[in-house]
Amino acid sequence: MFVTALLAATLAAPVPKALKEKAAGLNGLWEVVCTELGEVVQVGTGQTWEIDGEKVILRSGGKVGQGCHYTLVVPTEGGSDAVDFTTVFDESGEAFGQRGRRVTDGDTLTLYLAMRGERPAEAKAGKGVIVYSFRPVNTHK
Description:
6% of the residues lie in helices and 52% in strands. It is mainly β. The termini are far apart.
């Protein structure tokens, strides 16, 4: 819940549709293992992100959040590690985006998303940057 509330409370300016180039290529089910914002660190959030093309489904405690839907895309500008995460509120249709960077290292994925405004200059924690660390969820039995 902390992460979902944090996202809703800190959304940046809308990401223009013209900047969308393609899906981020991170398809799969990802577990959020850590969320950092400045001095606040939350480990083991109980949240997963299911990425399928541009579409992202956020689950907390196995339940899908209501009232919003999400996308994660690679924009046409911002460098090879750039991503744009967008939240669209179902009732109003308003869209808010966070510009960021991504790092994949082996089986891990880390997103560095600006709380407001411009994309971070580099993929690192800092003032106004929320950091999500993920690991893949093995769905094979």
